[in-house]
Amino acid sequence: MERRRTLLLVLAAVLLCASAAHGFMFHLPSAAERCFTQEIPSNTEVKITYSSDEAYGDFLDCTITNTDGAQIFLQMGKDEGVFAEHIANGGEYTICLTSRQSPKSTKSVRNILLLVQIGADAKDYDKIATKNKLRPMEVQMRVMEDTVAEVHNEFIYLKSREVEMRNTNEHMTTMVMWLSIGLIFLFAIFSYLQLRHLKRYFKKKRMID
């Protein structure tokens, strides 16, 4: 039992090294829009942060839409913002940032930093420790537990996606099979009608009996 617990802690420590935070910087010209998609597992905490340098005469808008295309976050005219939510339904979420011009625009290019944190990385453990009066060791254990739970949730999500993809592939295979059968049937009918037409033509020309 003790050995199993030790192995679990080692595994959790290794998992902590595999961060679920994705951050990058990109350039956004004036009057342009850039969109990114992020695959998010079900029942997962998510924190999306963006910040930009100032661009005189331009306004920065940010929208986030879920897998159904519904808008779940909108912030207009601010150079920085934070979206933090618990995502119940996993899938591809779309993040769009738009540099909106005004009549006084200098048409400058923005430098934008976008940070996406998923699962344990999206939680503020300092606040959790203060709220629950946790000791440093208890905080570390909480991080490990959340990381293991995150991996488990992601595994379940990937399994469900695998089933969806398999069902889709099977459906497409069935459609292709029936389409092939239909084409063969139509080709057979066309060949029969063509032969019948040629036979009548040759009889009319008295080339065959």
TrEMBL record:
It is a single-pass type I membrane protein. Keywords: Membrane, Signal, Transmembrane, Transmembrane helix. GO terms for cellular component: membrane. Pfam families: EMP24_GP25L. It is found in: Membrane. Residues 33-118 form the GOLD domain. InterPro entries: Emp24-like (IPR015720), GOLD_dom (IPR009038). The chain crosses the membrane at residues 175-195. Residues 1-23 form the signal peptide. It comes from the Eukaryota. Belongs to the EMP24/GP25L family. This is Putative COP-coated vesicle membrane protein gp25L.
